[in-house]
Protein backbone atom coordinates (compact mmCIF):
# COMPACT_ATOMS: atom_id res chain seq x y z
CA UNK A 1 0.00 0.00 0.00
CA UNK A 2 1.32 3.47 -0.93
CA UNK A 3 2.51 5.61 1.96
CA UNK A 4 0.21 8.47 2.85
CA UNK A 5 1.14 12.01 1.77
CA UNK A 6 -1.67 14.17 3.10
CA UNK A 7 -3.84 14.01 6.19
CA UNK A 8 -7.26 15.60 5.76
CA UNK A 9 -9.95 16.04 8.38
CA UNK A 10 -13.64 15.96 7.57
CA UNK A 11 -15.55 19.23 8.06
CA UNK A 12 -17.32 17.56 10.96
CA UNK A 13 -13.94 17.16 12.71
CA UNK A 14 -13.04 20.87 12.45
CA UNK A 15 -12.33 22.34 15.91
CA UNK A 16 -15.21 24.44 17.29
CA UNK A 17 -13.17 26.30 19.93
CA UNK A 18 -10.12 28.54 19.87
CA UNK A 19 -7.45 27.89 22.52
CA UNK A 20 -6.14 30.56 24.89
CA UNK A 21 -2.65 29.65 26.14
CA UNK A 22 -2.56 32.26 28.96
CA UNK A 23 -4.21 30.14 31.72
CA UNK A 24 -1.64 27.36 31.14
CA UNK A 25 1.46 29.56 31.43
CA UNK A 26 3.61 29.53 34.61
CA UNK A 27 2.95 33.26 35.01
CA UNK A 28 0.66 35.74 33.21
CA UNK A 29 2.02 38.19 30.64
CA UNK A 30 2.49 41.88 31.60
CA UNK A 31 -0.57 44.06 30.80
CA UNK A 32 -0.71 46.74 28.09
CA UNK A 33 -0.30 50.27 29.50
CA UNK A 34 -2.11 53.49 28.68
CA UNK A 35 0.32 55.77 26.76
CA UNK A 36 -0.68 58.78 28.86
CA UNK A 37 -1.11 57.43 32.39
CA UNK A 38 1.22 54.39 32.16
CA UNK A 39 -1.52 52.47 34.02
CA UNK A 40 -2.88 49.12 32.72
CA UNK A 41 -5.47 49.77 30.00
CA UNK A 42 -9.11 48.92 30.65
CA UNK A 43 -11.88 47.97 28.23
CA UNK A 44 -12.96 51.62 27.89
CA UNK A 45 -9.49 52.56 26.62
CA UNK A 46 -9.78 50.03 23.77
CA UNK A 47 -13.43 50.74 22.88
CA UNK A 48 -12.65 53.42 20.24
CA UNK A 49 -10.64 50.80 18.30
CA UNK A 50 -12.24 47.39 18.87
CA UNK A 51 -15.73 45.90 19.43
CA UNK A 52 -16.53 44.65 22.93
CA UNK A 53 -16.42 40.97 21.91
CA UNK A 54 -12.80 41.28 20.75
CA UNK A 55 -11.80 43.32 23.81
CA UNK A 56 -13.22 40.51 25.97
CA UNK A 57 -11.18 37.94 24.00
CA UNK A 58 -8.05 40.09 24.35
CA UNK A 59 -8.16 39.86 28.16
CA UNK A 60 -9.97 36.55 28.70
CA UNK A 61 -8.65 34.08 31.26
CA UNK A 62 -10.80 31.27 29.86
CA UNK A 63 -8.85 28.39 28.34
CA UNK A 64 -11.24 27.99 25.38
CA UNK A 65 -13.46 30.37 23.42
CA UNK A 66 -16.33 28.98 21.32
CA UNK A 67 -16.17 29.81 17.60
CA UNK A 68 -19.50 31.34 16.43
CA UNK A 69 -21.44 29.24 13.94
CA UNK A 70 -21.40 32.13 11.44
CA UNK A 71 -17.60 32.08 11.53
CA UNK A 72 -17.40 28.29 11.25
CA UNK A 73 -19.67 28.53 8.20
CA UNK A 74 -17.14 30.80 6.42
CA UNK A 75 -14.19 28.72 7.65
CA UNK A 76 -15.70 25.74 5.82
CA UNK A 77 -14.79 27.40 2.52
CA UNK A 78 -11.22 26.15 3.13
CA UNK A 79 -10.96 24.53 6.55
CA UNK A 80 -9.86 22.06 7.76
CA UNK A 81 -6.61 22.75 5.91
CA UNK A 82 -4.38 19.79 4.96
CA UNK A 83 -1.33 18.45 6.76
CA UNK A 84 1.28 17.12 4.30
CA UNK A 85 4.18 14.73 4.77
CA UNK A 86 7.03 16.23 2.71
CA UNK A 87 8.29 12.88 1.41
CA UNK A 88 9.89 14.32 -1.74
CA UNK A 89 11.79 16.93 0.24
CA UNK A 90 12.94 14.25 2.71
CA UNK A 91 14.22 12.13 -0.17
CA UNK A 92 16.02 15.07 -1.83
CA UNK A 93 17.74 15.91 1.46
CA UNK A 94 18.61 12.27 2.15
CA UNK A 95 17.43 12.70 5.72
CA UNK A 96 16.00 10.08 8.08
CA UNK A 97 13.82 12.86 9.56
CA UNK A 98 10.09 12.90 8.85
CA UNK A 99 8.97 16.38 7.74
CA UNK A 100 5.36 17.56 7.92
CA UNK A 101 3.90 20.91 6.92
CA UNK A 102 0.52 22.39 7.81
CA UNK A 103 -0.58 24.23 4.67
CA UNK A 104 -2.64 27.42 5.03
CA UNK A 105 -2.29 28.47 1.38
CA UNK A 106 -5.66 26.85 0.58
CA UNK A 107 -7.61 29.83 1.96
CA UNK A 108 -9.40 32.23 -0.46
CA UNK A 109 -6.51 34.71 -0.27
CA UNK A 110 -3.73 32.12 -0.07
CA UNK A 111 -2.59 32.54 3.54
CA UNK A 112 -3.49 31.94 7.21
CA UNK A 113 -4.73 35.51 7.68
CA UNK A 114 -8.49 34.89 7.10
CA UNK A 115 -8.51 32.74 10.27
CA UNK A 116 -8.68 36.00 12.22
CA UNK A 117 -10.00 38.40 9.56
CA UNK A 118 -13.29 36.50 9.37
CA UNK A 119 -14.08 36.57 13.12
CA UNK A 120 -12.92 40.20 13.39
CA UNK A 121 -15.28 41.26 10.60
CA UNK A 122 -18.08 39.15 12.10
CA UNK A 123 -17.80 40.65 15.62
CA UNK A 124 -17.59 44.20 14.26
CA UNK A 125 -20.63 43.74 12.02
CA UNK A 126 -22.57 42.18 14.93
CA UNK A 127 -21.99 45.36 16.98
CA UNK A 128 -23.15 47.68 14.19
CA UNK A 129 -19.76 48.79 12.86
CA UNK A 130 -19.92 49.56 9.13
CA UNK A 131 -16.25 50.30 8.27
CA UNK A 132 -12.90 48.80 9.21
CA UNK A 133 -9.47 50.37 8.75
CA UNK A 134 -6.19 48.48 8.79
CA UNK A 135 -2.59 48.43 7.65
CA UNK A 136 -0.83 45.84 5.55
CA UNK A 137 2.78 45.21 4.57
CA UNK A 138 3.13 42.57 1.87
CA UNK A 139 -0.65 42.67 1.41
CA UNK A 140 -1.57 39.28 2.88
CA UNK A 141 -3.46 40.80 5.81
CA UNK A 142 -5.10 43.52 3.73
CA UNK A 143 -6.33 40.89 1.26
CA UNK A 144 -7.74 38.77 4.09
CA UNK A 145 -9.59 41.66 5.73
CA UNK A 146 -10.94 42.82 2.36
CA UNK A 147 -12.32 39.31 1.78
CA UNK A 148 -13.81 39.16 5.30
CA UNK A 149 -15.40 42.61 4.99
CA UNK A 150 -16.98 41.62 1.68
CA UNK A 151 -18.37 38.50 3.40
CA UNK A 152 -20.06 40.51 6.18
CA UNK A 153 -20.96 43.67 4.22
CA UNK A 154 -18.42 46.09 5.72
CA UNK A 155 -16.39 48.85 4.07
CA UNK A 156 -12.64 48.23 4.23
CA UNK A 157 -9.90 50.86 4.04
CA UNK A 158 -6.27 49.74 3.91
CA UNK A 159 -2.99 51.61 4.32
CA UNK A 160 -0.28 49.58 2.59
CA UNK A 161 3.42 50.16 3.31
CA UNK A 162 4.73 52.21 0.38
CA UNK A 163 7.61 49.81 -0.44
CA UNK A 164 5.14 46.89 -0.78
CA UNK A 165 2.48 49.03 -2.49
CA UNK A 166 5.02 49.69 -5.25
CA UNK A 167 6.54 46.17 -5.33
CA UNK A 168 3.29 44.15 -5.16
CA UNK A 169 0.59 45.70 -7.40
CA UNK A 170 -1.40 42.46 -7.57
CA UNK A 171 -2.01 42.47 -3.83
CA UNK A 172 -3.57 45.91 -4.23
CA UNK A 173 -5.72 44.59 -7.09
CA UNK A 174 -6.84 41.63 -4.97
CA UNK A 175 -7.92 43.97 -2.17
CA UNK A 176 -9.76 46.20 -4.61
CA UNK A 177 -11.45 43.19 -6.22
CA UNK A 178 -12.89 42.33 -2.80
CA UNK A 179 -14.09 45.95 -2.52
CA UNK A 180 -11.43 47.58 -0.35
CA UNK A 181 -9.95 51.06 -0.77
CA UNK A 182 -6.12 50.98 -0.68
CA UNK A 183 -3.73 53.87 0.07
CA UNK A 184 0.07 53.87 0.01
CA UNK A 185 1.51 54.68 3.44
CA UNK A 186 2.67 57.23 4.49
CA UNK A 187 -0.19 59.18 2.90
CA UNK A 188 -1.43 62.77 2.89
CA UNK A 189 -4.78 61.57 4.30
CA UNK A 190 -3.77 61.55 7.98
CA UNK A 191 -1.88 63.80 10.38
CA UNK A 192 0.65 61.07 11.13
CA UNK A 193 1.21 60.39 7.43
CA UNK A 194 1.66 64.06 6.61
CA UNK A 195 4.17 64.45 9.46
CA UNK A 196 6.28 61.53 8.16
CA UNK A 197 6.21 62.88 4.58
CA UNK A 198 7.17 66.36 5.76
CA UNK A 199 10.26 64.90 7.44
CA UNK A 200 11.03 62.40 4.64
CA UNK A 201 9.16 62.96 1.34
CA UNK A 202 10.66 59.73 -0.07
CA UNK A 203 9.69 57.53 2.89
CA UNK A 204 9.30 53.84 1.92
CA UNK A 205 7.01 53.41 4.93
CA UNK A 206 6.76 50.83 7.69
CA UNK A 207 4.02 48.82 9.36
CA UNK A 208 4.31 51.13 12.37
CA UNK A 209 3.54 54.16 10.19
CA UNK A 210 0.65 52.40 8.41
CA UNK A 211 -0.81 51.36 11.79
CA UNK A 212 -0.69 55.01 12.95
CA UNK A 213 -2.67 56.07 9.88
CA UNK A 214 -5.29 53.33 10.21
CA UNK A 215 -5.69 53.86 13.98
CA UNK A 216 -6.01 57.63 13.54
CA UNK A 217 -8.80 57.17 10.99
CA UNK A 218 -10.67 54.61 13.12
CA UNK A 219 -10.55 56.72 16.28
CA UNK A 220 -12.14 59.69 14.51
CA UNK A 221 -15.36 58.00 13.28
CA UNK A 222 -18.16 56.41 15.33
CA UNK A 223 -19.03 53.86 12.63
CA UNK A 224 -15.41 52.75 12.20
CA UNK A 225 -13.14 50.39 14.10
CA UNK A 226 -9.58 49.18 13.56
CA UNK A 227 -8.51 45.60 12.75
CA UNK A 228 -5.03 44.19 13.35
CA UNK A 229 -3.66 41.13 11.57
CA UNK A 230 -1.13 39.94 14.15
CA UNK A 231 0.53 40.76 17.51
CA UNK A 232 -2.51 41.03 19.82
CA UNK A 233 -3.84 38.18 21.98
CA UNK A 234 -7.24 37.88 20.26
CA UNK A 235 -5.53 37.57 16.86
CA UNK A 236 -3.28 34.72 18.04
CA UNK A 237 -6.32 33.13 19.72
CA UNK A 238 -8.18 32.94 16.39
CA UNK A 239 -5.16 31.38 14.68
CA UNK A 240 -5.01 28.43 17.12
CA UNK A 241 -7.46 26.55 14.93
CA UNK A 242 -4.31 25.72 12.89
CA UNK A 243 -2.61 23.89 15.76
CA UNK A 244 -5.82 22.26 17.00
CA UNK A 245 -6.38 20.76 13.55
CA UNK A 246 -2.74 19.70 13.31
CA UNK A 247 -2.97 17.79 16.59
CA UNK A 248 -5.89 15.78 15.20
CA UNK A 249 -4.01 15.20 11.95
CA UNK A 250 -0.95 13.88 13.79
CA UNK A 251 -3.25 11.34 15.43
CA UNK A 252 -4.23 10.24 11.90
CA UNK A 253 -0.56 10.05 10.96
CA UNK A 254 0.31 8.10 14.11
CA UNK A 255 3.19 10.50 14.77
CA UNK A 256 4.29 13.17 17.27
CA UNK A 257 6.52 16.15 16.43
CA UNK A 258 9.95 16.42 18.04
CA UNK A 259 10.62 19.87 16.55
CA UNK A 260 8.05 22.53 15.59
CA UNK A 261 9.26 25.42 13.42
CA UNK A 262 7.38 28.56 12.40
CA UNK A 263 8.24 31.95 10.93
CA UNK A 264 7.64 35.02 13.09
CA UNK A 265 6.94 38.63 12.18
CA UNK A 266 4.14 39.74 14.49
CA UNK A 267 3.65 36.14 15.62
CA UNK A 268 0.13 35.07 14.62
CA UNK A 269 0.96 32.17 12.30
CA UNK A 270 3.65 30.86 14.65
CA UNK A 271 1.41 31.15 17.73
CA UNK A 272 -1.52 29.64 15.84
CA UNK A 273 0.40 26.45 15.16
CA UNK A 274 2.57 26.36 18.29
CA UNK A 275 0.22 27.21 21.16
CA UNK A 276 -1.89 24.01 21.11
CA UNK A 277 1.35 21.98 20.99
CA UNK A 278 2.76 24.09 23.84
CA UNK A 279 -0.35 23.16 25.87
CA UNK A 280 0.42 19.49 25.29
CA UNK A 281 4.07 20.08 26.20
CA UNK A 282 3.22 21.91 29.44
CA UNK A 283 0.84 19.08 30.34
CA UNK A 284 3.62 16.50 29.78
CA UNK A 285 1.85 14.73 26.91
CA UNK A 286 4.61 15.50 24.38
CA UNK A 287 7.92 17.37 24.41
CA UNK A 288 8.62 19.17 21.11
CA UNK A 289 11.31 21.81 20.75
CA UNK A 290 9.41 24.90 19.55
CA UNK A 291 11.47 27.23 17.36
CA UNK A 292 10.57 30.70 16.07
CA UNK A 293 12.44 31.88 12.96
CA UNK A 294 12.70 35.53 11.96
CA UNK A 295 14.52 37.53 9.26
CA UNK A 296 18.02 38.81 9.96
CA UNK A 297 16.78 42.14 8.58
CA UNK A 298 14.10 42.46 11.28
CA UNK A 299 15.32 40.36 14.25
CA UNK A 300 12.92 41.25 17.08
CA UNK A 301 13.30 38.16 19.29
CA UNK A 302 17.01 37.56 18.75
CA UNK A 303 18.25 41.17 18.89
CA UNK A 304 15.34 43.33 20.03
CA UNK A 305 14.89 44.66 23.58
CA UNK A 306 12.18 43.27 25.86
CA UNK A 307 10.52 46.51 26.89
CA UNK A 308 7.31 48.50 26.79
CA UNK A 309 6.93 50.17 23.40
CA UNK A 310 4.25 51.60 21.15
CA UNK A 311 2.68 49.33 18.56
CA UNK A 312 2.84 52.16 16.01
CA UNK A 313 5.23 54.92 14.95
CA UNK A 314 3.15 57.94 16.01
CA UNK A 315 2.56 56.60 19.54
CA UNK A 316 -1.24 56.33 19.27
CA UNK A 317 -1.54 52.75 20.56
CA UNK A 318 -1.23 51.34 24.09
CA UNK A 319 2.27 50.47 25.29
CA UNK A 320 2.97 46.75 24.86
CA UNK A 321 5.65 44.76 26.72
CA UNK A 322 7.32 42.98 23.83
CA UNK A 323 10.57 42.29 22.06
CA UNK A 324 11.00 45.42 19.97
CA UNK A 325 13.45 47.09 17.60
CA UNK A 326 11.90 50.46 18.51
CA UNK A 327 8.69 51.94 17.08
CA UNK A 328 10.76 54.24 14.82
CA UNK A 329 12.39 51.22 13.14
CA UNK A 330 12.00 51.06 9.34
CA UNK A 331 13.20 47.81 7.71
CA UNK A 332 15.41 48.03 4.67
CA UNK A 333 13.22 48.03 1.53
CA UNK A 334 15.50 45.39 -0.09
CA UNK A 335 14.18 42.87 2.44
CA UNK A 336 11.85 40.92 0.15
CA UNK A 337 9.83 38.93 2.66
CA UNK A 338 7.04 40.19 4.89
CA UNK A 339 7.85 39.85 8.60
CA UNK A 340 8.74 43.56 8.75
CA UNK A 341 7.10 44.60 12.02
CA UNK A 342 9.22 46.37 14.65
CA UNK A 343 7.74 44.37 17.56
CA UNK A 344 6.86 40.78 18.41
CA UNK A 345 3.55 39.63 19.87
CA UNK A 346 3.62 40.40 23.63
CA UNK A 347 2.37 36.86 24.31
CA UNK A 348 5.15 35.23 22.25
CA UNK A 349 7.71 37.63 23.75
CA UNK A 350 6.57 36.59 27.24
CA UNK A 351 6.71 32.88 26.36
CA UNK A 352 10.21 33.39 24.94
CA UNK A 353 11.28 35.14 28.16
CA UNK A 354 9.93 32.14 30.11
CA UNK A 355 12.28 29.91 28.10
CA UNK A 356 9.48 27.84 26.57
CA UNK A 357 10.49 28.48 22.95
CA UNK A 358 13.71 29.08 20.98
CA UNK A 359 14.42 31.73 18.34
CA UNK A 360 16.86 32.21 15.48
CA UNK A 361 17.30 34.68 12.61
CA UNK A 362 18.13 33.71 9.02
CA UNK A 363 19.25 35.82 6.04
CA UNK A 364 16.99 36.08 3.02
CA UNK A 365 19.37 34.38 0.58
CA UNK A 366 19.16 31.14 2.59
CA UNK A 367 15.39 31.59 2.88
CA UNK A 368 14.78 31.93 -0.85
CA UNK A 369 17.14 29.01 -1.54
CA UNK A 370 14.97 26.92 0.80
CA UNK A 371 11.82 28.19 -0.93
CA UNK A 372 13.12 27.16 -4.35
CA UNK A 373 14.24 23.77 -3.02
CA UNK A 374 10.79 23.21 -1.52
CA UNK A 375 9.02 24.29 -4.72
CA UNK A 376 11.11 21.92 -6.85
CA UNK A 377 10.38 18.95 -4.59
CA UNK A 378 6.92 19.53 -3.07
CA UNK A 379 5.41 21.58 -5.91
CA UNK A 380 4.23 24.56 -3.84
CA UNK A 381 6.03 27.90 -4.19
CA UNK A 382 5.99 29.15 -0.59
CA UNK A 383 5.34 32.77 0.31
CA UNK A 384 8.59 34.55 1.29
CA UNK A 385 7.53 34.55 4.95
CA UNK A 386 7.42 30.76 5.54
CA UNK A 387 10.68 30.27 3.65
CA UNK A 388 12.30 31.39 6.92
CA UNK A 389 10.75 28.40 8.69
CA UNK A 390 11.58 26.10 5.76
CA UNK A 391 15.24 27.15 5.88
CA UNK A 392 15.38 26.23 9.58
CA UNK A 393 13.44 23.04 8.89
CA UNK A 394 16.00 22.00 6.24
CA UNK A 395 18.86 22.82 8.63
CA UNK A 396 17.30 20.49 11.22
CA UNK A 397 16.71 17.73 8.67
CA UNK A 398 20.34 17.92 7.51
CA UNK A 399 21.53 17.68 11.13
CA UNK A 400 19.47 14.50 11.37
CA UNK A 401 21.26 13.24 8.25
CA UNK A 402 24.58 13.67 10.09
CA UNK A 403 23.42 12.15 13.39
CA UNK A 404 21.08 9.49 12.01
CA UNK A 405 18.24 10.71 14.25
CA UNK A 406 14.73 10.04 12.93
CA UNK A 407 13.22 13.25 14.27
CA UNK A 408 9.70 14.33 13.36
CA UNK A 409 9.70 17.97 12.18
CA UNK A 410 6.53 20.04 11.81
CA UNK A 411 6.51 23.41 10.09
CA UNK A 412 3.89 26.02 9.28
CA UNK A 413 3.55 26.75 5.56
CA UNK A 414 1.37 29.80 6.07
CA UNK A 415 0.82 30.73 2.42
CA UNK A 416 1.80 30.48 -1.24
CA UNK A 417 3.76 32.99 -3.34
CA UNK A 418 1.54 33.31 -6.41
CA UNK A 419 1.45 37.08 -5.91
CA UNK A 420 5.01 37.29 -4.55
CA UNK A 421 6.79 35.95 -7.61
CA UNK A 422 8.72 39.22 -8.25
CA UNK A 423 10.66 38.46 -5.04
CA UNK A 424 11.57 35.03 -6.45
CA UNK A 425 12.41 36.72 -9.74
CA UNK A 426 14.87 38.96 -7.91
CA UNK A 427 16.40 35.93 -6.18
CA UNK A 428 16.71 33.91 -9.39
CA UNK A 429 18.32 36.91 -11.12
CA UNK A 430 20.87 37.22 -8.33
CA UNK A 431 19.44 40.53 -7.11
CA UNK A 432 18.61 39.39 -3.56
CA UNK A 433 21.27 40.13 -0.98
CA UNK A 434 21.38 39.50 2.74
CA UNK A 435 20.73 42.53 4.86
CA UNK A 436 21.68 42.07 8.48
CA UNK A 437 20.57 44.94 10.68
CA UNK A 438 23.66 47.05 11.60
CA UNK A 439 24.27 47.61 15.33
CA UNK A 440 24.25 51.40 14.94
CA UNK A 441 20.84 51.34 13.22
CA UNK A 442 19.45 49.16 16.02
CA UNK A 443 20.90 51.42 18.72
CA UNK A 444 19.36 54.45 17.01
CA UNK A 445 15.86 52.94 16.80
CA UNK A 446 16.01 51.59 20.38
CA UNK A 447 17.01 55.05 21.65
CA UNK A 448 13.44 56.20 21.05
CA UNK A 449 11.80 53.70 23.44
CA UNK A 450 9.30 55.43 25.75
TrEMBL record:
Pathway this chain belongs to: Amino-acid biosynthesis; L-tryptophan biosynthesis; L-tryptophan from chorismate: step 5/5
UniProt EC number: 4.2.1.20
Modified residue annotations for N6-(pyridoxal phosphate)lysine: 113
PROSITE patterns: TRP_SYNTHASE_BETA (PS00168)
InterPro entries, per database record: Trp_synth_b-like (IPR006316), Trp_synth_b_CS (IPR006653), Trp_synth_beta (IPR006654), Trp_synth_beta/beta-like (IPR023026), TrpB-like_PALP (IPR001926), TrpB-like_PALP_sf (IPR036052)
Catalytic reaction list: (1S,2R)-1-C-(indol-3-yl)glycerol 3-phosphate + L-serine = D-glyceraldehyde 3-phosphate + L-tryptophan + H2O
Keywords of this entry: Amino-acid biosynthesis, Aromatic amino acid biosynthesis, Lyase, Pyridoxal phosphate, Tryptophan biosynthesis
UniProt cofactor(s): pyridoxal 5'-phosphate
Tryptophan synthase beta chain-like PALP domain span: 77-415
Assembly notes: Tetramer of two alpha and two beta chains.
Main function: The beta subunit is responsible for the synthesis of L-tryptophan from indole and L-serine.
Similarity comment: Belongs to the TrpB family.
Protein name (record): Tryptophan synthase beta chain
Lineage, highest ranks first: Bacteria, Bacillati, Actinomycetota, Actinomycetes, Pseudonocardiales
